[in-house]
Design goal:
The chain is of the alpha+beta class. Helix content is about 35%, strand content about 20%. Strands 17-18-16-15-21-22-23 form a seven-stranded mixed beta sheet. β10 and β11 form a beta hairpin. It is globular and about 65 Å long. It starts with a strand and ends in a 7-residue tail after the last helix. The model has no long low-confidence stretch (mean pLDDT about 95).
């Protein structure tokens, strides 16, 4: 009898395959990084072929290491970097262009034009999103307008679009030989093309971007008993496994953190930060710069919505210290370097490398380090980088409380940065509430596994999943209220210095 669930977590910087048991414990994993392609300022791309190769290799390596096979898996969940846009030829399986990553800002003029033409309010009402470079619709439009042959291929019905979940599922289920072209409601809700109320592609929104409906995948629930398709017997998993779960990464983390009740929230610390608040079956429209989005939809049950605050650059700011500045050799060293000082020495770092996301939505912003004096060292910059992660999360938490009317009492956290003990202590200090990390920190993959397992009855209900959640560590705030508010006021001043830097008119 199959006793495990597999999950592909196709992230911004790497792809991992993880295997979980019935208690939600990790049984095995393998993770592989892929190249970050930066053709020019503001452009971020991935090679979709490299991504599917890494996915296949990660699956094979994890199964080999655990001595498990496809027959040991009751189902497979997929979770993915959202908004990242792939367009490929259905006949050859080859991408028409590199994947345009969610961080990419080349579509700023498209977003600005939508606002100028009065289409922004329609997009907000129907899709729950502001016109922004973040989302997929503008990226598809850019490919159709700028890649030779793309528009003609789309009009012929030969060009397919998908976020990376769709690309992975299409390839795992056969690719050019019968690959299934699907996505789920959470990923579709990140395109600016889906109507949040009908849960279907919206013809008016498609018209805004000039996207033919024939390019788009079929929208399905996030958890599906009959599955989206079956992996190939001779494929990466070495056997046929039903793919029964599909969620965008932040929604998957919300499921992994068992935030199933309205008012429950989590914050994921990865390349960027993403805070989601479950609003239940009610579609709450933000007045404070947050996104209205789909949280999940399990089978035939009603759709559950969320408010989300998306922050573009958090963990990737630490990568910048490593890769571009060379002041640390690895992410873990950011903590030891920052611990050499007791405060930021007056330095504030706003890493608006690709503009500012929630709650500002300013594509004209660019990164700034302010408050420097001769006194400052690389340790102050390392600490300011960790503080930037936490202050950006406070921006979102404050907006969430204003929209929901419910003050934050505790923050559940997950993702790689939560292993940085100093950063999590600063987060508690900046927010003034306890910060709680679960035993299984990789809640994104776990959430995809939960969705897949619920679909086939491996877990009977969300109540059973709640019993799996256990706290590993809690950080209590230590700053005084005066210290907290003084630091936040200076952060807001630093944010102001980043605005109006790029002309996007």
């Amino acid at each position: 009898m199959a006793e495990f669930v597999g999950a592909v977590d196709q992230g911004t910087t790497s792809t991992r395959f993880m295997i979980f048991d019935h208690s939600g414990n990790e049984v095995g994993r393998h993770q592989l990084e892929h190249e970050q392609i930066l053709p020019q300022a503001g452009w971020v791309e991935h090679n979709p072929v490299e991504i599917i190769e890494r996915t296949n290799a990660a699956c094979q390596s994890a199964l080999n290491a655990t001595k498990l096979s496809a027959s040991d898996l009751v189902g497979l969940g997929i979770t993915n970097q959202r908004e990242t846009t792939v367009v490929w030829d259905r006949r050859t399986g080859r991408p028409l262009y590199n994947a345009i990553v969610w961080q990419d800002t080349r579509t700023d003029r498209i977003a600005t034009a939508l606002e100028r033409e009065g289409k922004g309010d329609v997009i907000r009402r129907k899709a729950g999103l502001p016109p922004a470079t973040y989302f997929s619709g503008g990226k598809i439009q850019w490919i159709l307008e700028n890649v030779d042959g793309a528009r003609a291929a789309a009009e012929r019905g030969d060009a397919l679009f998908g976020n990376t979940d769709t690309w992975v599922i299409w390839n795992l289920t056969g690719g050019v030989n019968g690959g299934v072209h699907v996505t789920d409601v959470t990923n579709a809700s990140r395109t600016m093309l889906m109507n949040l109320e009908t849960l279907d592609w919206d013809d008016e929104l498609l018209g805004f971007f000039g996207v033919p409906r024939s390019m788009l995948p079929e929208i399905k629930p996030s958890s599906l008993a009959e599955g989206y398709g079956t992996t190939l017997a001779n494929g990466a998993l070495g056997g046929e496994v039903r793919i029964t779960g599909d969620l965008g990464d932040q929604q998957a983390a919300t499921v992994g953190q068992v935030c199933f009740a309205p008012g429950e929230a989590k914050n994921t610390y990865g390349t960027g930060n993403f805070m989601l608040l479950n609003t239940g079956t009610e579609l709450v429209r933000s007045e404070n710069g947050l996104l209205s989005t789909v949280c999940y939809k399990f089978g035939d049950e009603p759709v559950v919505y969320a408010l989300e605050g998306s922050i573009a650059v958090t963990g990737s700011a630490v990568q910048w210290l490593r890769d571009q500045l060379g002041i640390i050799s690895g992410a873990a060293q950011s903590e030891s370097l920052a611990r050499q000082v007791t405060d930021n020495g007056g330095v504030y770092f706003v890493p608006a490398f690709s503009g500012l996301f929630a709650p500002y939505w300013r594509s004209d912003a660019r990164g700034a380090i302010v408050g420097l004096s001769r006194f400052n060292t690389n340790a102050h910059l390392a600490r300011a980088t960790l503080e930037a992660i936490c202050y950006q999360s406070r921006d979102v938490a404050d907006a969430m409380s204003a929209d929901s009317g419910v003050p934050l009492e505790k923050l559940r956290v997950d993702g790689g940065v939560t292993m940085n003990e100093l950063c999590m202590q600063i987060q508690a200090d900046v927010l003034g509430v306890p910060v709680s990390r679960p035993v299984v920190a990789e809640t994104t993959a776990l959430g995809a596994a939960y969705a897949a397992g619920l679909a086939v009855g491996f877990w009977s209900s969300t109540d059973e999943l709640r019993e799996n959640w256990n706290e590993a560590r809690r950080w209590e705030p230590t700053w005084s209220e005066e210290q907290r508010e003084e630091g936040y006021a200076k952060w807001k001043k630093a944010v102001e210095r980043t605005l109006d830097w790029v002309d996007v008119g």
